[in-house]
Specification:
The structure holds 2 protein chains of 2 kinds.
Chain A lengths: L16 H29 L14 H14 L8 H25 L14 H33 L3 H31 L1 H16 L2 H12 L3 H12 L1 H13 L2 H9 L4 H12 L1 H17 L1 H6 L5 H10 L3 H26 L7 H21 L1 H4 L12 H37 L3 H16 L1 H16 L3 H31 L1 H16 L2 H12 L3 H25 L3 H9 L4 H12 L1 H17 L1 H5 L6 H10 L3 H32 L7
Helix pairs in contact in A: 1-19, 2-30, 3-5, 4-15, 4-16, 5-6, 5-8, 5-9, 5-12, 5-14, 6-9, 6-30, 7-8, 7-29, 7-30, 8-12, 9-12, 10-11, 12-15, 14-15, 15-22, 15-23, 18-21, 18-23, 19-20, 19-30, 20-30, 21-22, 21-24, 21-27, 22-24, 23-24, 24-27, 25-26, 27-30, 29-30
Chain B lengths: L1 H22 L6 E5 L3 H16 L4 E5 L5 H7 L4 E6 H13 L3 E18 L2 H4 L12 H6 L9 E5 L8 H8 L3 E5 L3 H13 L6 E5 L3 H4 L2 E3 L7 H5 L18 E8 L1 H5 L1 H9 L4 H12 L5 H11 L1 H9 L1
Parallel strand pairs in B: 1-2, 5-6
Antiparallel strand pairs in B: 3-9, 4-7, 4-8, 4-9
The chains are: A mainly alpha, B alpha/beta.
Chain lengths: 664, 316
């Protein structure tokens, strides 16, 4: 290796590999040795390095509780209080929501002569089919009608329309808000730096941590649920907007300037359309994440399908849970495909005939519904149900294969999971903070070192070290497994259109099917505990690993691939030397999102009994202790931020070493 | 003189205040919370139907059991029909302390929570339901899994339920390890799984619920709970530790926003009078969860057969 001559074309000759390795060893060997020494002999000498003394724990949770109480009850802008302001905002969101809800489920007016029924199921299906036809032709129309038909046939119509009403409000707010924030952050670099930690917080602090303040500020009911949904679903839109705008070729921007675009024209007529492909991934994510919140939203008054899922699983009616769960998936698929198709420009589509057709459909459906009750409400007699079929399936597996499953689980637990957990739980916070700071310093300089050091010690200071390590153990293992599964699938699907279509349906399903639906059968087969929690986290976090890998590979400039082929690269070389390297930013974004998704599942894993930060948040919720919940939520966010920054810095360094600085 | 005048003014005021209160009740709907367990849906719908019979408008809002207190304090929500002494006490006390929430008394239902096992375990661990049977190594082994062996495995409720099971195990010297299920869904999924395989299980069960009606089994009989047992280490078998007894049983409370009393005094009286018992409730839960009836049908049925009772609640 060392004999390879440095290429003359490079500005900076790459140091020989052995030298690099030696330098790395010289730095890390003493550090790791010191760490091992602390781990082995440190406990009696410096117990405070393992467990922060309770006396020195600052009562942060009390401070936060006091602040929240002040904000909720006393804070004022002079003319009106803070709570009045948020209530006014809630009313603004509530007005369109009431209209949509009236249209879809409740109708208008309370007394018979003045009342107006909601749109009938036939009318809604015809309408979405028409929209589908306008956006994407006959096939899309059939798909969308099929999705809505599925919901009607399985008797979930009313619940689904309640859910749809809140989604129809939450998704546009999330998309518009995320896009505008992303555009602003692209224009002003300081804003980009300022909002990055905020986005991390929005996506990683478990909803339960700020549930109580939100309910008090925005009132109990669908609006609070909509706003909680927006908080959770918006960050990917902003992130992707930033990334997509950065990927717009410089020539396009220059062209826009040359033809004399104003700043607004440049943004809306040039940059946004050029970045459309990337932006649509953001739209997809907002839709998926909004539907993912359906369960939690139903706990705070949104009702709908989420409530059906919870109620069915409470009775251990797996079939019922699965049907309601797949109704959520059907909504997600229909909305996503519609929005993706609508964003594609179509030359031949004329608006007017569709508008007339839509009006005619509505009129016809209305008259029909008035004449025939079955056209208004889907009749009970026509409904299908899987009944007890799924319960029987689970029973059959349980009775026949429990022993085998138990053996596999026990082997994994005893040999992999528990040793890693024991090891992590035994680590001194001082050593971990020092190692992370060292890594931060090597990868990104003293600022990163300071950040990782501070955040790590803060977790130890608020006395949540053990919970944080349990979190790290559970999410760390899950992320590794998710990446190991997701990367190869993403690579394979990126090059095969047919496979990609199938994979997309699968990952959309994984992302929107409420984890509860498969968590409860998993509990029956694997008992409560870390293993079951890990299964749920992997199932959810594998989706972004696949999605972003495929997106990155598909976005590689075909000219470069062609050039590679012309130079005689093999397929493998094209993949590893060209595509994967150029797709590195997206793949790393995928890793980032996999970590974020894994951490966001903590709320759910707490529900199968893990003792991590998610559980801490959940306990705080039950004690109505806003401070304790937010402190634990912040610790989750800290872990996410440390991981994100270290990965980002490592990626920048790797790109610099590969001479790819200009590529992204 | 001044006293008389003041008295007169006070009585006039009182009259003024009393008259409109009798005459005009708010026409706004009363918002009742719904949770995700069947028993609660039934009590809430029962109360709602009774209030509707009395001429009130009722709205049902789905809410989380614990998060609902935020709504009750601000008046966004008005009535929660089931706050269990055993699981909701802390949150309820915190809410009552604000003065914005009132306790409208017991529903008449009694919450039971205790360690429970299916009947077939009595062959493997003779001596049950007496708790002392659990002390033997053979019994612990019968309930053990690979992860807990040689100790037995006891599946506790979600950490949020409290329950002092770790303390109970320590105080009574039981050779058991406490594993917490995260939700009661997980709890009953494990129970169902074990029963299908006739496998050993020992877990926390509560009633009124469909599980003790559907499966044959028994509550473990611990030394009976007294308040001193939880607070005074000297009490009971273990002189050094508290919690050397069973779990407390308790009332299920009706809790409302304080504004309910001023806005809908008639409804306030009806809710306070509302009272049903465990047998009725158990039968209704069984009808819904095991026999496939809808909540609405069961509620309508109860309303028809118990008309005298609920008429009496709304007439005073």
């Amino acid at each position: 290796m060392s004999a390879r001559p440095a290429p003359v074309t490079r500005r900076r000759p790459a140091p020989a590999l052995w030298l690099l390795a030696l330098r790395l060893l010289a730095l890390w060997l003493p550090a790791l040795a010191a760490f091992a020494a602390l781990l082995t002999w440190g406990k009696p000498l410096a117990p405070w390095a393992f467990d922060w003394p309770d006396l020195l724990t600052p009562p942060v949770d009390r401070w936060i509780s006091d602040f929240v109480r002040w904000l909720l009850n006393k804070a004022t802008f002079g003319l009106f209080t803070f709570r009045e302001a948020t209530r006014a905002l809630a009313a603004v969101v509530d007005a369109p929501y009431q209209i949509v809800r009236g249209l879809l489920t409740e109708g208008f007016g309370a007394w018979p002569p003045l009342s107006w029924p909601p749109l009938s199921w036939l009318g809604v299906i015809a309408l979405v089919a028409l929209i589908g036809h306008r956006a994407g032709g006959g096939r899309l129309a059939a798909l969308v009608a099929g999705c809505f038909g599925f919901i009607a046939v399985f008797g979930k119509w009313t619940s689904a329309m309640v859910t749809l009403a809140s989604i129809l409000i939450a998704v546009p707010i999330g998309i518009a808000g995320g896009l505008l924030l992303g555009l602003a952050a692209y224009r002003w670099r300081w804003l980009a730096r300022a909002i990055t930690p905020v986005l991390d917080l929005m996506q990683t602090i478990p909803v339960f941590a700020y549930l109580v303040p939100i309910l008090i500020l925005f009132g109990f009911g669908p609006v609070a649920a909509i706003l909680a949904t927006v908080i959770y679903a918006m960050p990917p839109m902003t992130r992707i907007t930033l990334l997509a705008l950065a990927r717009v070729p410089g020539e396009v921007r220059d062209l826009g300037r040359m033809v004399g675009c104003t700043r607004a024209q440049l943004t809306w007529r040039v940059m946004v359309p050029s970045a459309r492909e990337g932006l649509m991934v953001g739209v997809n994510q907002v839709i998926m994440l909004s539907l993912n919140m359906v369960i939690i939203a139903s706990m705070i008054g949104a009702g709908g399908l989420g409530f059906d899922v919870l109620a069915a699983l409470r009775r251990l009616d797996f079939g019922g849970g699965l049907e309601a769960g797949f109704a959520i998936v059907a909504l997600a698929v229909a909305l996503d495909r519609l929005s993706q198709a609508a964003a594609r420009p179509r030359a031949d589509a004329r608006r007017r005939p569709y508008l007339w057709a839509a009006l005619a459909t509505l009129l016809l459906a209305g008259v029909l519904a008035w004449l025939v009750p079955a056209a208004q409400n889907y009749p009970r007699g026509w409904q299908l149900s899987t009944g007890t079929f799924w319960n029987e399936v689970v029973r059959w597996i349980n009775v026949n294969y429990f022993g085998t499953l138990e053996a596999i689980k026990t082997t994994l637990l005893l040999n992999v999971l528990i040793p890693i957990k024991r090891f992590l739980l035994g680590l001194p916070w001082l050593g971990v903070a020092a190692l992370l700071a060292l890594a931060g310093w090597r990868l990104g300089g003293w600022r990163l070192a300071l950040l990782t050091w501070t955040l790590t010690s803060l977790i130890a200071m608020v006395d949540l070290w053990a919970e944080a390590m349990t979190t790290l153990y559970l999410c760390g293992i899950s992320v590794v497994i998710a990446m190991l599964i997701g990367l190869p699938i993403g690579v394979a699907a990126a090059e095969r259109d047919g496979l990609w279509r199938v994979v997309r349906v699968v990952i959309d399903t994984l992302q929107t099917l409420p984890s509860f639906v498969y968590l409860m059968p998993a509990v029956m087969l694997f008992r409560v505990g870390d293993f079951t929690a890990m299964l749920a986290v992997v199932a959810y976090a594998v989706a972004p690993a696949i999605r972003y890998t495929a997106l990155g590979l598909q976005g590689v400039d075909p000219a470069l691939v062609e050039a590679g082929r012309a130079m005689g690269c093999t397929r493998w070389q094209i993949l590893t030397r060209i595509k994967l390297r150029l797709a590195l930013p997206e793949i790393l974004l995928g890793l980032n999102q996999t970590i974020m998704f894994a951490l966001s599942m903590l709320v759910i894993t707490a529900l199968v009994g893990t003792r991590d930060l998610g559980q801490e948040v959940y306990i705080a919720l039950t004690n109505a202790n806003a401070g304790r919940g937010l402190v634990a939520g912040l610790c989750v966010a800290f872990i996410a931020i440390i991981a994100d920054r270290l990965i980002g810095a490592a990626a920048r360094q790797a790109r610099a070493r590969l001479g790819l600085e200009g590529a992204a | 003189m001044t006293t008389i005048r003041r008295l007169g003014a006070a009585s006039a005021l009182a009259l003024l205040a009393a008259l409109p209160a009798l005459a005009q009740e708010s026409t706004d709907p009363i918002r009742i919370t719904l949770h995700d367990w069947t028993g609660h849906l039934i009590t809430s719908r029962l109360m709602g139907s009774i209030l509707e019979q009395d001429g009130y408008k009722v709205e049902y809002v789905q809410a989380d059991y614990l998060a609902q207190f935020a709504g009750l304090e601000t008046g966004d929500l008005h009535l929660a029909m089931e706050i269990w002494e055993t699981t909701g006490r802390e949150a309820m006390d915190a809410a009552l302390a604000t003065g914005n929430v009132q306790n409208l008394g017991p529903t008449g239902l009694d919450a039971i929570e205790e360690w429970w096992y299916p009947s077939y375990m009595e062959a493997l661990c003779p001596g049950l339901p007496n708790w002392e049977a659990l002390l033997s190594e053979d019994c612990a082994a019968a309930f053990a899994t690979a992860e807990t062996a040689p100790k037995g495995r006891y599946l506790g409720g979600p950490v949020t339920w409290g329950g002092f099971d770790e303390e109970r195990v320590a105080a009574l010297g039981l050779p058991f390890e406490v594993i917490h299920a995260g939700t009661d869904g997980a709890l009953f999924a494990e129970l169902e799984s074990a029963i299908q395989r006739q496998a050993p299980i020992l877990l926390w069960i509560y009633a009124p619920h469909w599980a003790p009606a559907k499966y044959e089994g028994n509550w473990v009989q611990f030394p009976q709970y007294t308040p001193e047992c939880y607070t005074d280490p000297a009490w009971g078998l273990n002189p050094d530790l508290a919690h050397d007894c069973g779990k407390p049983f308790g009332e299920i409370w009706k809790v409302a926003w304080s504004g309910l009393e001023t806005n809908w005094p008639g409804a306030h009286a009806a809710i306070t009078a509302f009272n049903i018992n465990n047998e009725e409730m158990g039968a209704m839960i069984t009808a819904v969860d095991l026999e496939g009836a809808t909540v609405e049908e069961v509620v309508a049925d109860w309303m028809a057969t118990n008309e005298d009772r609920w008429r009496a609640w709304i007439t005073d």
